[in-house]
Structures are given as structure tokens and as C-alpha cells.
Amino acid sequence: MANIESSLKELLAIDGALGACIVDYKSGMSLGHSGGGVDLELAAAGNSEVVKAKMATMKSLGIKGEIEDILITLKDQLHIIRPTASHNGLFIYLVLDRNKSNLALARRKVHSIEEDLEV
Questions:
Q1: Would you kindly state where each structural domain of the chain is located, as residue ranges?
Q2: CATH architecture for residues 4-116
Q3: Cα–Cα distance between 59 and 55 in angstroms, integer?
Q4: Dihedral pair phi/psi, residue 98, rounded to 5°
Q5: Which of 40, 112, 111, 12 is nearest to 71 (CA)?
Q6: Which residue pairs from 76-83 have beta carbons closer than 8 angstroms and sit at least 24 positions apart in sequence?
Q7: What does the pLDDT profile of the chain (119 residues) look like in tens digits?
Q8: 48 near 23, Cβ under 8 Å?
Q9: Distance from CA of residue 27 to its chain's centroid?
Q10: Distance CA 7, CA 11 (A)
Q11: Which domain of life is it from (predicted)?
Q12: 28: helix, coil or strand?
């Protein structure tokens, strides 16, 4: 079991990690953040809307199941949004330098951190 602070340290230890936060998507508030790459407080609020919109779309379409992660690819960055399975209403947000990271390994590590997260 890992708390928010130790989870953020683990996220920033991922190759190419620029910034990370753990977010309550119902309110858009960050429970904790570290690093940079973008304004993480603003990103927490904006990406909360992304998660809510995707969940609403899935419901409208009758798609069963949970979101594993959402990937946003930019020219120089990768953004991973991973809703937590055990903590309803939270997601992990990770910003990666696209040229210094391995997406497959980063996704796997975020999944592992999400499973160990204790809030």
C-alpha cells in the first residue's frame, strides 16, 4: 500500500516523467501533484472533464466496463489518465516527455502504482 506522496515519487521515477498528480475527477481538484511539464492544477480540472465526458459517452452507448486509461499524444509529450479501480472518483495523471519515455513501460508502471495506491 502506498500513500499519495510515495505514489507521486514513484510516478516521477518513470523514465521521461515530467509531472504527475492524483485527482478527484468529481471536483476537479488535485489531491497531490509533483513535477511540471504543464500547469498540473489546471490539467487536473481540465482532465476531470475528459474523464466525465468519456464515462457519459460510454453510458450513452451502453458500453459496459471501466476505463483502463486514456492516452493523449502530443508532439513532444504523452499524457496518461488512469482512473483508479479501488478509489471511485480518482484518477492518476502522468505527463511524459515523448522522446525520453517508453509508453508501454510507463502504462504498466502507472497500473502498478494505481493498484497499490492507498488514499
A1: 4-116
A2: 2-Layer Sandwich (3.30)
A3: 6
A4: -60, -35
A5: 111
A6: 77/18, 77/37, 77/38, 78/103, 78/106, 79/43, 79/47, 80/106, 80/107, 80/110, 81/47, 81/50, 81/51, 82/110, 82/111, 82/114, 83/25, 83/51
A7: 579 999 999 999 999 999 999 999 999 999 999 999 899 999 999 999 999 999 999 999 999 999 999 999 999 999 999 999 877 899 999 999 999 999 999 999 999 999 999 88
A8: yes
A9: 15
A10: 6
A11: Bacteria
A12: coil
Q: Is 65 helix (H, G, I), strand (E, B) or coil?
A: coil
Strand partners, 92: 22, 82
Closest among 117, 118, 72 to 98, alpha carbons compared:
72
Cell (9 digits) for 59 = 453510458
Q: Which segments of the chain are extended strands (E)?
A: 17-24, 29-35, 70-73, 77-83, 90-97
* Residue written as grid cell 472518483: 89
What amino acid occupies position 48?
A: S
Closest CA to 93 of 22, 11, 34, 35: 22
